[in-house]
Structures are given as structure tokens and as C-alpha cells.
Amino acid sequence: MAVQLEGEATLTSEDQHSTEDAVLALFKHAFLNNAAQDISLQRELHRAWLKKGLVSLPPNFAGLDASRPWFVFWITHALELLGDYDEPHWSYQVAGFIAHCQDPTGGFAGGPQQLPHLAPTYAAVSALVVAGTEAAYKVVDRKAMYGFLMRMKSPDGGFKMHDEGETDMRGCYCAIATASMLHMLSDELLEGVPEYISRCQTWEGGIAGEEGLEAHGGYSYCGLAALCIAGKADALDLHSFLKWAVHKQMSHEGGFQGRANKLVDSCYSFWQGAIFPLLHEAFRQKGGSMPLPDDHCWFSPQPLQMYLLLACQHPNGGLRDKPGKSADFYHTCYALSGMAVSQYDVQGNTSIVGDIHNLLERTDIYYNVLVEKAERRSAYFNSLPPLEIDGRSLQGGEGPGAVAWRKRVLASRRVQEVDASPSSAIGRKGGYAGGDVE
Amino acid sequence: MYGISEDRPYSKREEWKDVTPVPQKDGPHPLAVIKYPPGFEEVHGYFRAIQQRNETSLRALSLTADVIENNSANYTAWYYRRRCLKELDSDLDEERVFTNKWATDCPKNYQVWYHRRWLISEIAERKRKEAGAEADKHIQLLARQELEYHLDCMQVNSDYKNYNGWSHRQFILQHFNLWHEELPFVERLLSEDIRNNSAWNHRYTVVRNQSWPLSDEIRKREIKFAMDAIRACANNECAWNYLSAFLGEGNCKVPWTAEPEVEVLCREVIDVAAQHGTCRMALQAMASINEAKGDVQAAAALYSQLEEVDRIRAKYWAWRASLLGAV
Ligand SMILES: [Zn+2]
């Protein structure tokens, strides 16, 4: 039989073609009407839309009543990335509301008086880190939290999402990131975790939600970030992981898909996009003489930003998954987070598509809060005496991988601030998309 | 009995008059405040009251159905519902009917599928305890019905890649040890859509559970399956990925040079593709073959070709080339 390049059309190829067409039509429209430097992030629009949602949500959000700490995190973090988080205004309220989602037995729930659950626990703690005040940090009952995290450990090395609940890769990330942010990541909490995550790395190279399932961008981020935080990414086959991840950037659309032969989706800008700097760290953790790129770690930041700016901004504010969808807070948070990740390389040099004011604040690839906020938090928790649990002091702290990365980022930033020329508006090296549009 | 019995507000119902609803404690500074639709707050108020009393009763069970009707992602309600079902020793076949619509209507909801997983295990467990000559037959039937149900869900929603659904299917196959019957199902799905990566992944997992460690015969069969798929549609990333699951270095793999017809196919695809652009997967496979042969120059040439034609991954290809000298 002779080789067919395209073969017969199927559901997958039809969906792919119509998405590709919709995205390329928007690109064409933009290039006909704008100069490259006019491509801009509609900050005003997004800010207004985000702030409205932080206060109140319409009745059709009733189905998300078990995710309220997520809304607080998604929205406040998105505002932070835009440089528009009004700390004195919001932080008090964030601390007050999140406190009402805390369970007396430890952990946070999806809303007041619900069952504690690992996903809103991560969201709540991250929202408190974004809030950034001592009063916010103090909301967390750390002793009870540690008990909750240990109680969620399942015998296979993973974590249950809640009492008698499901175990999957989200649990690993939520538990490890939470423990690390609160400086209580211990050996007993990590026991069996690298083996569990390694068993979920698939034949494709990425990580699945559970052993046997398909490699997936979201779960891949969760597994890799959890291991990188703990400094244990050598449990994975990093080369096959990278090979899988690079192929998830779409040749035409520029954004990422979550799995092979699925459609482009803006939230994977973060889940997949952050995998590259994490893998860079993982290779570094592993050591050896292998040369590593320092310039945006193997993927192409400019087409990704092009996709987000031209195809994902909703005219009424917020960002969407893809053209034809409505904007939502989840996609807005992760589209902006992914854009921020793609704008800074390992050294802190920037790569910005369009208007230079499209530059976002830098996010910490381990926790997805601003680097400054991650640092401020660590200064506070470092100043506390060790936690006493059952008469012994907890042998735990922040994950060494997360500490090392932040230290390097902050050090290179200080060097750059010294080097920055006074004429530079942002104090760092910026770049325009210019003619680099394919 | 377990569903929603009526429309009257709870405050007007005789059987609920001993219960005072518990309001939601949002505190003085609530954020992300949802303007709840009519009835939502009342149902949840009674649900909070029931939890506070730690009551597991028939009315509590039917109340959880009402909460779930208002918000099917309310994991607390699903959790509490399982508690009631256990303590009341409820009829679980009836519960299966109750959950039927949830997985088809909300296929991306974690709670629904997890509930279903618990339910099927529990039903099987009970049947096993009843023992009897027919127990095994009933359990096998239950499991097969569940596999049918997964297929129905995919067909109804015309979504053959739903992650939670696949998770359910693999759980059933594992729990009831049915992997050996699964290959025809995979082949059917792949014949409908050769680009469905969930089906490719499932194929690998079936092989992993059924034929591990791999014999040469099974490996050859899988390599041939991937090569045939590549022939029929060479620009399909899944088939190339599947091919490389059996070639290279690693557990149960053989070197890229072990099956000479792979190289023949790569050359053929590269030739055909040259007339219409390129096939990056074929070039990548060819580079792997050359690396396996130790032909660094040929591999480097392919990586630099990839750097040219696959611009979005240019940095990756350049890096791969740079590793050739380093190792
Ligand atoms: Zn998405």
C-alpha cells in the first residue's frame, strides 16, 4: 500500500481543521489591520471584568459553588499578573473569606461548611500568599493542615482529594505545593510520592492522572512540579518527557494542546508552558555535563503569545479557551500565567509580542504566585519556630527545588537591575515581535 | 424513593418540620459571592442541618439528591450520599439508575464517576458475599454492562476522549480482570478514528496488562500495527508515538535498528512528504535510527533539517543536535 499523508478525515481531523481555520482567520484579520506593535493586551477590559467577578457571580455559577477559593485565587492572581492587585483593598477581605472555608480538622473546603478537599486547599493557601499579609498567612491552622495532608496520603503513594475521595495526580501537586508553601514538607509526607508519580509517567513521556491513562498537560504539570519542588525530579525520564512536551505546541495556532491530537486550549499555555522551565530545573537538579539552553527552554514563546493575544481575548473582557468560547476565570488565570511564563527566559530576559506594555509580572513556576509573593511568604514562615506535633518538632520546610530556583531568579534580577539602562521603560531587556510572525 | 419527591419548599413539608435549616457562614467579607438561583439556599440549608445532626436516614438520602440536582459538583453531597447508602444498606441497583444520567449529562465531573466507581465495586462486593453458584456470572455481567455504559456515554456526547470516562473503563477492566477481552474494542475505536490518542493509549495499557513482559511476537505485532497506521495516515502523531513506544532504550524495547522495515517506511514517508512539505515525525524517527546506528553526521543533518522545517520546535531540534557531540 502506498503511503497516504493525510488519510481519511475523522472526527479528530475535522475538529482540528475547523479550529485551525477559526484561529488563522483571526490572525489574518489582525495582521491586515494592525502593525505588530499594536497587538495589545486589553488590560482595562480584563481588569474590570476580573474585579466584578471577585465580588459577585451570577446564578449560572451555582454549579461552581464548591470551588469558591479557586475563584479568589484565579482572580487575584490574574490581577497580580496584570500589576493591578490592590493589596490594601483586597487582602483583608481575602483573609476573612478564606478563613471561613477552613475546616476545624484541617485543610480548606470549596466553600464554608463543606468537606475539606485538597484542590481548594491549594487554591486557598495560594490566595492567602497572593494576599501577602501576615494576617493572611496566620489564617492557616498549620498543625491541623499537616494532619489533614497526612490523612489524605493513600497507600499507593498518591493523595486522596478528600476523605474517602478519589486519588489522582492533582492530589500530589496540591498536597506537596501546599506543604512547601507553608514550610512543612517532610520526608514522611513525601514517602512513596516519587515512585507513584514515576509510575504515572506514560509511554508517551508525559504524566497521566492515574497509572494507565493518557499523558495530559495538566497532570504532567502537577507531577513534574511536585517532584521539582521536592528536588526529586530524577525519578522521571526527563528526555522522553521533554520530547512529548515540545510536540504539544501547535504548529499553526501557536498555543498548546493538552494531549496528542486534541485541540489547542489557552489554559495549557501554563500547564504545558511551565513544563519547560521546570524540566530545565530538573535537568539541572540531575547535574552532569549536558548543555542546557538558557533562552526560553525549547519552546517558542512568540507564537504562544500571538495565540493568546489574537485568538483568546474576549471583546467583553477576560480570556477564553479558544475562539468561539466565552471567557472564564480559570482560562483567564492560566492564559495569563502561561503568557507570563513565556515572557521570561531562565536569565530573566524578556520576549514580548506586540506592545511593550504587554509584559506581565513574573510568576513562580512552582506555585504559580508572583516570585515576590513567594519570597515574602518564605521570609515569614522562616521566622517561625518549628511546628510542634504530638510532642515532637516537625522536620520539614520548604521544598529545596523551589527554594533554589527562586534564589537564582532573584539573584539574576538584582544583576539586571544594576545593568538596566535608564532609558529602558521596564528596566529589563525587552523585545518586540517585529517581523518574527509566521 | 431516592430521587426528588416533590416541588414544595422544605419549610412547608411535614416530614421536615423538626429541622431548622443552617445558614451558610460566609462571614462579614465574603468574596466570589454567587447569586444563588431560587431554592438553592434552602436545600443547602437543610443539608447543612442534616450534616450537623449527623443524620443518615431516608430523608437525608433524598435530600442529597436534591443538593446534587442543584450542583452536581458538590463533593460533600456525594460523600454524604455514600454514607447514607452504606448505613441504610440501600438498594444499589436503584442507585445505579440514579447515577446513569449524571455521567452522560456531566461527563467531565469527577464526583459522578468516582461515585459510580464506588457503586460498582460495592455491588460486586455484595454479590460476592451472597455467593451462590450464580455470583460470578452476575459480577461478570455487571462489569460488562459497565463497559457498555462507558461506550454509550462516549457515543451520546460524541466525545471519545473524555478522560474521566476512560479512567472508569480502565478501573473496571482492572477490578474485574477483563483486560484479555479488550483488544477488539480498541481496534474498533481506532478503525473509526485512527487519530484518537485516547484509544492509542488504551491499546498500550491493554498490552501492558495482558502481555508483559513483551514477547518478540507481540512486539512485532504492535510495531506492525503502528506501521500500518502510519501508512494509512502518515501525519498522525499518535501512530509515530506508538511506534517509538517499542523502539529505542528502555524496558521491553528493542533498538531503532532492530526492525529494518521501520527505516524503509521512514524513507518512503519522507519521500512522499517532500512533495507537499514535510512530515516532522518521520524525520525525527529517521534521526533516532541514525543515532542508533552511530551515524552522528546523518542524525545531525536530520536535526538541522527539522530546525528548518519545524520552526516552532527549532530550539529543541538545535539542542538535540548539540547533544550528538556531547554524548
Ligand atoms: Zn482549558
Automatic annotation (TrEMBL), chain A:
One of its GO terms (cellular component) is protein farnesyltransferase complex. InterPro entries: FTB, PGGT1B-like, Prenyltrans, Terpenoid_cyclase/PrenylTrfase. Transmembrane segments: none annotated. Residues 41-368 form the Prenyltransferase alpha-alpha toroid domain. Residues 417-438 are annotated as: Disordered. Residues 428-438 have a biased composition (Gly residues). Its cofactor is Zn(2+). Binds 1 zinc ion per subunit. GO terms for biological process: prenylation. It catalyses: L-cysteinyl-[protein] + (2E,6E)-farnesyl diphosphate = S-(2E,6E)-farnesyl-L-cysteinyl-[protein] + diphosphate. Its EC number is 2.5.1.58. One of its GO terms (molecular function) is zinc ion binding. Gene3D superfamilies: 1.50.10.20. Keywords: Metal-binding, Prenyltransferase, Repeat, Transferase, Zinc. It comes from the Eukaryota. It holds the Pfam family Prenyltrans. Catalyzes the transfer of a farnesyl moiety from farnesyl diphosphate to a cysteine at the fourth position from the C-terminus of several proteins. The beta subunit is responsible for peptide-binding. Belongs to the protein prenyltransferase subunit beta family. Heterodimer of an alpha and a beta subunit. This is Protein farnesyltransferase subunit beta. The lineage of its organism: Eukaryota, Sar, Alveolata, Dinophyceae, Suessiales.
From TrEMBL, chain B:
This is Protein farnesyltransferase/geranylgeranyltransferase type-1 subunit alpha. Residues 1-18 have a biased composition (Basic and acidic residues). Its cofactor is Mg(2+). GO terms for cellular component: CAAX-protein geranylgeranyltransferase complex; protein farnesyltransferase complex. Residues 1-28 are annotated as: Disordered. One of its GO terms (molecular function) is protein farnesyltransferase activity. InterPro entries: Prenyl_trans_a. It comes from Effrenium voratum. Gene3D superfamilies: Protein prenylyltransferase. Its EC number is 2.5.1.58, 2.5.1.59. Keywords: Magnesium, Prenyltransferase, Repeat, Transferase. Pfam families: PPTA (PF01239). Belongs to the protein prenyltransferase subunit alpha family.
